[in-house]
Design brief:
CATH architecture: Orthogonal Bundle
Strand order of the largest sheet: 1-2-3-4
Distance between the termini: 28 Å
Number of helices: 12
Helix content: 40-55%
Largest sheet: 4 strands, mixed
Order of helices and strands: HHHHHHHHHHHEEHEE
Radius of gyration: 18 Å
InterPro entries: HD_domain, MJ1020-like
CATH superfamily: Hypothetical protein af1432
Protein name: HD domain protein
Organism: Halalkalicoccus paucihalophilus
Length: 266
């Protein structure tokens, strides 16, 4: 996770706008955890192999994790305050830990079924958190961190409204994994559903520090089909995230000649 161009990858050795030592320790632990790594492979079978849907495995999780930490860093640089850890009496350093664990575990419920996977993710993630959190926290911290991580996991889909900005970050960044590589597998196997076709139109997603707002998200698309990813899926993620006032999303059609849509701004 060393590349930083366009704030797409979290670099543990870089300077950040938040205390990162605890986060880096947790990341080092979970990235080599055998059970978590097995889930990342197994959770892709139902959506991709059986349903020909977009990726929800290791690559998707890597993208959501990196973008969540990069978005969080930009928001912190912009002076945005987070309430999840704070409301629980936890430390600022725990905000990024909550984000990392929620990003890593938010889709494991897919091992049960894609339908209602968010709700299946809760007990499965709780079991993993019960095992790994004692490595870093006492009982009080374990309970509070676990609650915040599960809240963020629950709210990454649009059915539940995030009550914390940490959860809002996970919700948005789940939607920011929309580049064409995510739909490569179903597209090559003949999938032509709207999720697959619209994702094929998205060339690149990058995060930048904004001029009049903390975060500017730029989406490059090569076809008007990409509008579905932005105006339907991502807009629903941004709405009620608690971060609407701090994140501006601009999608540009880089091949706009004779196209119906040249630019979308959320």
């Amino acid at each position: 996770m060393a590349e930083t161009t366009g704030n797409r990858h979290y670099d543990p050795d870089a300077e950040h706008a938040f205390p990162d030592e605890r986060l880096n320790e947790v990341l080092s632990f979970i990235e080599t955890d055998e059970e978590i790594q097995t889930y990342l492979e197994a959770q892709n079978v139902n959506p991709v192999t059986r349903m020909r849907y977009n990726d929800h495995g290791e690559k998707h999780i890597e993208i959501v994790l990196n973008r969540a930490l990069c978005l969080y860093d930009l928001l912190k640089r912009g002076g945005v305050e987070f309430n999840g850890a704070r409301d629980q009496g936890l430390e600022e350093a725990d905000e990024a830990v909550i984000l990392a664990l929620a990003a890593k575990l938010h889709d494991i419920g897919h091992v049960v079924h894609r339908s209602d996977h968010t709700y299946y993710s809760i007990p499965l993630a709780a079991d993993i958190l019960n095992r790994i959190l004692p490595e870093f926290y006492g009982i009080d911290g374990q309970v509070r961190i676990k609650g915040e991580v599960l809240h963020a996991i629950l709210c990454h889909h649009t059915e539940e409204v995030p009550l914390t900005r940490e959860a809002g970050v996970i919700r948005i960044c789940d939607g920011l994994d929309m580049e064409r590589g995510r739909s490569r597998n179903p597209y090559e196997r003949g999938g032509r559903g709207i999720n697959t076709v619209s994702s094929q139109a998205i060339q690149r997603v990058s995060l930048h520090e904004g001029e009049d707002i903390p975060v500017h998200v730029e989406i490059e698309m090569t076809d008007a089909a990409g509008v579905y990813q932005v105006d339907s899926l991502l807009k629903a993620k941004l709405d009620d995230s608690g971060l609407e006032d701090f994140v501006r999303i601009v999608a540009i059609n880089t091949r706009s000649e004779n196209e119906l849509v040249e630019r979308i701004e959320l």
